[in-house]
Amino acid sequence: EKKRDEEIDGIINLVADDQLDEWFGKFNKIASQYELVDEWKFTSFKNLLIRLAKAKPQISEKLLEKSLANNSPFKKFIGNFLDGFRFVYNFDSWDRCVARMVDLKDAQLINDILFSLNLPFEEENFAKSTRNKDIDLLDDIANHKNKFSFIGEKDDYLHRNALFSALVRNFKYAPKRIDRLIVTEIKNNPSDPNLYLNGFSTAISRGLVSIKDLQTETVALLKEKMIDLSDMDWHIQGLLLEIGKQYGLKDVLGVFKGRIDKDVNKKENGGRIASDRYDAVPYHFNKDLVKFIDEQPEYINIASGWVFGMKPGWSNYNWDLSHFLRRVG
């Protein structure tokens, strides 16, 4: 690794203004192989561009501009320049390049911008890594405002992932404002709750977001989306556990009761087609969530109330509730 870093430093020392066209040709030739080889093989190339942006920002800006002007294969890699600028807090270069990229109304370039707002920084450096201007930009993108009205023209999973990642990464800088943007993003994309629920689970585990800092409306929306999911995986159950720790057992059990009621309602109102899978109760429970439920003294009383709703004979409600009680106890 040290040897590779030294080789990269040697290349960066050679990159000069008077040979810009030559270096652009070399970088473009490497980038042209993007569709032909595995992406991981470009790791050193990406690292070179990040470090070039750190060491020689003016040359990096010129290379980025040439790539955009020529719509060259190298355009796929210019997001690394943005990363390099932000790693050293070179906001002037970042702002100039972002303004140029936004004007092109290219979805890939917008994603590059978003990914550069989702960089890892130590806690003590967080305050200077984000600006009000960055939050304004995220606001415009999330709400498809001003120069970003074109974004809503088609669904793009990569864009939604990039935007949500940037929002949770910068949550601590402006929690209330970003909370509203997250709610907007989730409501605008109701067909893919897994992306946002798993994203929250990851963000909480990384310490980027805490349930206690979310507005009650946001927590209610997360619970609503958990009920809508066809299945609750281990990670999303972990997110529900975090909600339970903050709000109590009733919020946890409310999600499972909501799922059971939804399943019963779906089946008793015309049934469903085979592809419409909905597992009201997970087959694989998060052990920490089970432990949390079992340790709450009010669990027995709440579960007993559910049992009183069971009817003689077989029913969808009896089936789902029995499944839940067997899994949880």
Enumerate the spans where pLDDT stays under 50 for 5 or more consecutive residues: none
What is the strand content? under 5%
Number of helices: 18
Number of extended strands: 0
Residue share in helix: 55-70%
Please provide a written account of the structure.
- The protein has 329 residues and is mostly helical.
- The chain has helices spanning 2-14, 20-31, 43-55, 57-70, 79-87, 91-103, 107-116, 126-129, 132-142, 157-169, 175-188, 193-205, 216-228, 234-247, 249-268, 287-295, 299-308, 316-328.
- α3 crosses α4 (57-70) and α14 (234-247) crosses α15 (249-268).
- The mean pLDDT is 93.
Keywords:
329 residues, mainly alpha, 0% strand
Sum this structure up briefly.
By secondary structure, the chain is an all-alpha fold. The chain has helices at residues 2-14, 20-31, 43-55, 57-70, 79-87, 91-103, 107-116, 126-129, 132-142, 157-169, 175-188, 193-205, 216-228, 234-247, 249-268, 287-295, 299-308, 316-328. The protein is 66% helix and 0% strand.
How are the secondary structure elements laid out?
Layout: H1 2-14, H2 20-31, H3 43-55, H4 57-70, H5 79-87, H6 91-103, H7 107-116, H8 126-129, H9 132-142, H10 157-169, H11 175-188, H12 193-205, H13 216-228, H14 234-247, H15 249-268, H16 287-295, H17 299-308, H18 316-328
Helix pairs in contact: 1-3, 3-4, 3-5, 4-6, 5-6, 5-7, 7-10, 9-11, 10-11, 10-12, 12-14, 13-15, 14-15, 15-18
